[in-house]
Request: fold
Amino acid sequence: MKQGVLKQIVLVSSGDLRLSANQNCWAAQLQMEGNLTTAIEKFGWTVKRAHPYNSTKKHGFIDSQRMGMDVFHDIDPNQPLIVAESVWQYSHHVLAGLTTHKGPILTVANWSGQWPGLVGMLNLNGCLTKAGINYSTLWSENFDDDFFTDGLQEWLSTGKISYDQSHVKSFALSKIPLADEKKGRTFARSLKNRKAIMGVFDEGCMGMYNAIIPDELLHKTGFFKERLSQSALYAAMLQVTEKEAEAVLNWLLKKGMKFNWGTNEQTELTQAQTLEQCKMYIAAVRIADEFSCDTIGIQYQQGLKDLTVASDLVEGLLNNEDRPPVFSLEGKELYAKQALPHFNEVDECAGLDSLVTYKLWKELGMTGENTLHDIRWGENYKVEGINEFVWLFLISGAAPAAHFIDGYKGASSDRQPAMYFRLGGGTLKGISKPGFIVWSRVYVCDNALHCDLGVGEVVALPIEETNRRWKETTSEWPIMHAVLKGVSRDQMMARHKANHIQVVYANYEASAHEACRVKAAAMDELGITVHFCGDVNLIKKRN
Reply:
């Protein structure tokens, strides 16, 4: 790395757009930046923060795209730069500046589940990858471990970091059983020939540039967007009757689902909020039917949150085959006995993956209910006497009851945190059941669609440990304890190009490996570049 006289690094930090979130999370960011600065100074470098603490707003984050542009305007474009994150952040706040920055870029997050700093960093990494911006990335709990300090020293010396990617195998250079390949390719040809419609309720949630698939890339797969508006969704909610909403709620209560209602609208979930969500559920299905959508995604974070309740309960219901029936105005049941796959936060990469998975798993004779999760955090834990790294996957919406221990009986609804959702609304919360899964992620790299996928296992942890992990993260959200086979923590973090990961259950371990291979062939047939990650049972490498 070219070193200036002062060996100085400039530091920026992207934050949320929502003032309450930035204020609540600022203390954690301040502590993280202090630890990071101490680590950097040990190597003889200094750190200059590019934007000050705002005493009026009571935080020091870049909180808008314009502010980010102005901050980068005053940064030497050749200077080494770190984007430090201990919170969820909106990537478009800093993306414009990073597109023209010529010096080495390092994204850094603290290894903590408290606020979604790891999630925010992974999203930014995915955005940088899609934009073709060179960067390195690091993470640490205390910024004094060997992995972090070795990586930091390498970046300070060379401007880049090398990572262990030995767990990645190209599908093109691998050989799978012919039967698996035929199943995958036959399925994909049929899907591509029929074509599919993705209903997109307002694109670009929370600045997630990486979650938008350019139309010219998407069309090659046979998927096409129906661009819808959240204002139309709200208007459709106004047409749903109280009786219809009550029927949805009563269906859920009869299934044994619990609603943790209170009376304070500002801080507690109320029955009125839940009924409003039931109206949104009906409205979403009706609009999806009107436009013949195969899958839909609701943005909800901006715009809609200022009008009505959160969409999280809605999303989880849509992703479950066993769900409250919805009828058209003419009395016809819509999408009867089917899930209507929903991609949380209009993450179109997840939407493509979700529909392919749902339909393919049915072809394979398995239930295809699937969801995305945030890669929130993880720690080592002894599972059946073996020390494993157990990831904590967490998402506010989209997780179906079919994934939970005891299904709807094991599900509850808690109010979304007020700092994110002023008008409330509940989640669909549960603990994911033990079993084998196939995990995946579709992403954009080098102006092409890619897909990483592998096999994992959802493990059961003692309820005390589950509750501890919930307490360390967001206790209102559904949780999954996952072990990714053949992929270490640091390999996953260095490789993954998104904050989200897609998961679906298989019947047993061998079927997970088979389904993973079949899905790889299907994705390849759709024109997506596929990479196996970790332990997937193949035949052998091609010559």
